[in-house]
Amino acid sequence: MDPQQSAELRRGMGIVDNTDQGGPRQVTIISSERWDSVSQALGASVDPVLRRANLLVSGVELEGSRGKVLKVEACRVQVNGETRPCERMDEAHPGLRATLEPHWGGGVYAEVLDDGVIRQGDVVTWVDGS
Known about the structure:
Blueprint: E1 6-10, E2 14-15, E3 27-31, H1 32-42, E4 55-57, E5 69-72, E6 75-82, H2 88-92, H3 96-100, E7 108-112, E8 116-119, E9 124-126
Parallel strand pairs: 3-4
Antiparallel strand pairs: 1-2, 1-8, 3-7, 5-6, 5-9, 6-7
């Protein structure tokens, strides 16, 4: 996973040029606040790139958000569920998998509802009523 300044989202497909296209897991999202707490629990500065998620967001609580719609600037994504951490997390950093288990620390997976381009620093909010 290489950090990017922007990404193009395509409705029903996901991130353009990403290997995972279509289905309910088009985009994976983690919270920077939750990641910070995971790093603190591990007692190490752990790069969020190790989680291998597509988006790192701030200012929104992802725990319990199944079915909610998240707006990233002009694009919307619907959260379809929790991303459960796998054994690869411990390969990346010892103890990471167990530390990600509580409170949806592994983030969420979502389906793209709108075409558009998102950029680093875009505003992220929950859509009213979701």
